[in-house]
Amino acid sequence: MRGRLHPVILCGGSGSRLWPMSRRLLPKQFLPLVSERSMLQDTVLRLASLPDCEAPVVVSNNEHRFLVAEQLNALEIRPAVQILEPMGRNTAPAVAVSALHVAKEDPDGMLLVVPSDSAIRDVAAFGQAAASAIQAARQGFLLTFGIRPTYAATAYGYIEPGAPLPEAPGAMRVARFIEKPKIDKAQEYLASGRFLWNSGMFAFSAKRFLKELKKHRPDILEAAEAALSGAAHDLDFLRLEAKAFERCPSESIDYAVMEKTADGAVVPADMGWSDVGSWSALWDIAEKDAAGNVIRGDAHLREVTGSYVRADSRLVYLLGVKDLLVVETDDAILVSERSRSEEVKEIVEELDRGKRTEHVSHSRVYRPWGYYESIDAGSRFQVKRLMVKPGQALSLQMHHHRAEHWVVVSGTAKVTRGDNVIMISENESTYIPLGVKHRLENPGKVPLYLIEVQSGSYLGEDDIVRFDDRYKRG
């Protein structure tokens, strides 16, 4: 029986080199960096364009589960399963769990494994490369996608192709994998015309991958099997058993299998691919004006060349500069030489060491019920703006250290306050005393907007005791 094609989308990663847009709670795969849709949404639609493609298997961490679900729901695409990793363990364990899940449902199933945060401008070329890779994978090979280099990149691993596969036109055996090179070697590889960038995309049968994993890394397979067998369904999610998954070694699929198998193959491709690993990479693939500038948002340039400028919340004006990177958000601004964009990761590490929060979340923080954003804060007070989606509700909760005053801006709120349930509308307000159980709901058909004024001795988000929550948060 011919196995069906099951896309696997790996939705981990922090995208720290794309700070201040990408943050720990809203990393780059959930942002509209390349198009008007998020990178995850672009990935899902790209896969949906392939013929005879099943619904995707999505692997994400617990923290981002509702972001993934909401972005797929906006496309009216329901995943075959959304697997939640309790902690990151690199790509080999994630693919192992996915392969085990698919093999149960479709023993001859084929996997097409892709990251959620790559950009591909030529979708037709991607489809052609995928068809070649899947054909070779059906012959028992384990395929990776090799990208024809356009410059001497030092941020990517390389692949040296070997002999062509007669049974799979367009595919070649892998002669060797090469670690990220120094610049002189990268220039040598580019000049030779023989080497390819390693894209981190793969195709193989679930059964074949698991056989190779058992041969080369049985410890990863054993831990993945235990984590999946102990998994629990939670709403629309499949939660892996935490202790078993924690025991799983952290290893990439390249190291665990692809560099060890005797049946590795590569499909060379020219598809306008980028891993969008830095602001400079994003400048490389974006459309530019006549002066080589990329402009996003309310940004104005005069006598500026070769720069990437993004203004998200206010006017940004550049005058008489060149080759700059300027990214503005409502709570942080990055200004750098464009050539040094790889060092942005070090800025994020510095912010983390300083126990700051600008690398963790934006001022707008998304929740499964909607979002909140900070407006003002001072000694013993904080002001937030909340949006609650139609039909959604916050948890039934209480606070030990703060009281809250809610003012409805638009929409209608259903408020549980102790033993009382009241409805409040535009320009009406209510007060939630410290220590009182309460819940906020939107019973209407339009978004509910309100202002929340918190006052008390401690205003941290961890001062929440939940008694009931439809989203099953702790």
Written account of the structure:
By secondary structure, the protein is α+β, with helices and mostly antiparallel strands. It has 3 domains: 5-274, Spore Coat Polysaccharide Biosynthesis Protein SpsA, Chain A (Alpha-Beta Complex), CATH 3.90.550; 281-353, no CATH class; 364-468, Sandwich (Jelly Rolls), CATH 2.60.120. The chain has helices spanning 39-48, 65-74, 91-105, 123-137, 183-192, 206-216, 218-229, 242-246, 253-258, 279-285, 344-353, and strands spanning 5-10, 57-61, 81-85, 110-115, 119-120, 142-147, 158-164, 172-178, 196-205, 232-234, 237-239, 264-269, 273-274, 294-302, 308-319, 324-328, 333-337, 364-367, 370-378, 381-388, 396-398, 402-410, 413-417, 420-424, 429-432, 438-441, 448-456, 465-468. It is globular, with a radius of gyration of 25 Å. The two termini are 44 Å apart.
Q: Which features does this protein show?
A:
5-stranded mixed beta barrel; 3 domains; 23% helix; Jelly Rolls; 474 residues; alpha+beta
Q: How would you concisely characterize the structure shown here?
A:
The protein is α+β, with helices and mostly antiparallel strands. It is built from 11 helices and 28 strands.
